[in-house]
């Protein structure tokens, strides 16, 4: 028991010693510019926060928070001096600075002295924890603000913006983040208008004038609050606040508007229609209480500036420091400072660097601050792994009248919305394009129509349009007397579309090629992608590899690869009538005629008198009947059911044979024939024949990469005459078997040369379009203009003007008539033969059945026993004759004799024999009855 009391006593003494070691006050520094929009709001907010902390017994119990402030005067040099002076006073943390530029400099100082730096206004994203480990941002990074702006740009489907920014760390860091955010939305910064710090009105005027020369009309302004308002008054003089312009301003303008208690209506007239971002702070009782307290103290101190959102972050920063110090002291840590051996005063130096001390517990204090987790005026004050505040969000305002309207919100959780972020945090995240919403906006010029966001630049520089000069096909593109006189179908379509645009577009045509050899079209598209050209106009096919590096308009003509091959007229001869069928077809057809004739003769011989007679007559009947059915002129009538069935099927076969023969003979005698036998792309690929293509076009790569045609088979051609010569010479004469090219070229080529024709079908589908740089808005506007040309019929009129040539007749445009072989009819012939065999089978089954009955009736009709003796001699002679011949041969002969008999005769004989049998049966029964009597 005594030992337990001693232990408790020692613990109590230790606790008392620790409590006694807790300092009575802790010094905290604050760095900001007193006389600034942000500084005026932050100064009073920090003082009120220190008072609230010292009045709160639950935080820093027994320890007072001592605030030491220094004025940085918006100067990097003075800010550094002030920071060094602040460090001499042994502060454990520094709140500030408000400037990102000063933040970069001071961060090196606090890194050396291990003093945490909590900035409530330095929003430059490049102030990263990896470079500055003792820097903690207690406001929202511009990284998130630029993502919010990119979401707005994407929401209104703009593709280019002009960035107007102050040329310092703050401005450059924000614009860099903006470029990355826009790239993720497939947009970009088309022009960067950098304003040097502390510029006068003339410099700003020059910067804005150059920005106005660019095509983008979406202006993103990222400057300092105290000098930024001059931009809009100068822009108003340059008529840049008129209809058609878009101004998106970062949160500095919201701080200016919130801090201006007495609105200057003249200044407000310069910013009508602007979209402004402001850090979102959720509504709460604590926030409303603080606003009331701030306004009351401000009135008492005659502070004319109002409270802005940076004041809220400054207030929460003080509380974060207080809670961090409290946790630091509660963990038993001591506040001690030690000299830095690397800091010493050189001989004669007055800087007194040796007075700067290292905070020994700086690392532990930093870790306690990073673990901060409480709800402040700005919402949850908590840091993620990147040391950014969780749940960054912005209000989106639209300036109009004497104030601003809230049109929506942006949060990193759900993107754009018209619902407050704190409500959406309780729902699953939804960043789909359908969920992104904003209220209606009144744009500059009091317009409610969403601006297009760009115009053709009025910088005096015309659109650089590259035009390929071809060695041939002048109907498409031609140059006469310099680049200014470019003509052709493609140029007419382009000029007609340009005239439909709602703004003037001066163009300068730049010819590419020497006119003797076709230029490489892929190289021209690469020139557009490399900004050597603004556009490319001509017969450019829209294919996959080109769309990766350039933007194409709507196709103005449909195109596709086809095959052109030489054709020849069929020469007439005395034996031309035999050409429709192959020899095999003729032989099989003739054999089938004879076979069907024999089958019908067999089926009709017993019942039809016209198929009977002498053997010579029957053979003639078979051949006459067979071949007369070819002309449906057979005179013999069929009377049996099986014969009529076979004849109907055969007449159907004859009808098909006649029709096919007539059509094939007509084709052979009238249409043209392929000289090489190539009837389509499959034949061309499977052959080893050379293939011609137009030099410079995508056809070569398509044949090699997609169809696996060896490069050795491809022959480049440039002119229409080279096309014709290569086809005429053919593979044996050093030419080509066929040419693969796009349909518009083929139409022009065939209008000059009528002895060539298109074979097969189009095996690709693409179109021609005008090429522009990636994401060029001019491409979309020209696509709309091309659709207008198509709907009005003007596009077809331009096509007919250049492509219609009456030199070649199109009556004989069919090629490739071929002889008909057995392969086209074997199915029909097989069906006919099977039907014939089936009819014969039924016929012979019926014959066998009749013969069986006929034989039975013959046996039944033999003489009785009383007459047997009288016929004994005759029977003996017949038996002897049968012994000399095989019985099977006799039966077959009797069967054939039976088959040769008429059907009617057989029936009479069977009927007569049946009657005789009945009579004999009656006669034999009479004697028996008499004998019994």
UniProtKB/TrEMBL annotation:
GO terms for cellular component: membrane. Residues 920-933 have a biased composition (Polar residues). Keywords: Disulfide bond, Glycoprotein, Ion channel, Ion transport, Ligand-gated ion channel, Membrane, Receptor, Signal, Transmembrane, Transmembrane helix, Transport. InterPro entries: ANF_lig-bd_rcpt, GABAb_receptor_plant_PBP1, Glu/Gly-bd, Ionotropic_Glu_rcpt, Iontro_rcpt_C, Iontropic_Glu_rcpt_pln, Peripla_BP_I. The keyword Membrane applies. Residues 462-805 form the Ionotropic glutamate receptor C-terminal domain. It is found in: Membrane. GO terms for biological process: cellular response to oxygen-containing compound; monoatomic ion transmembrane transport; response to wounding; signal transduction. It holds the Pfam family ANF_receptor. Glutamate-gated receptor that probably acts as non-selective cation channel. Belongs to the glutamate-gated ion channel (TC 1.A.10.1) family. This is Glutamate receptor. It comes from Urochloa decumbens.
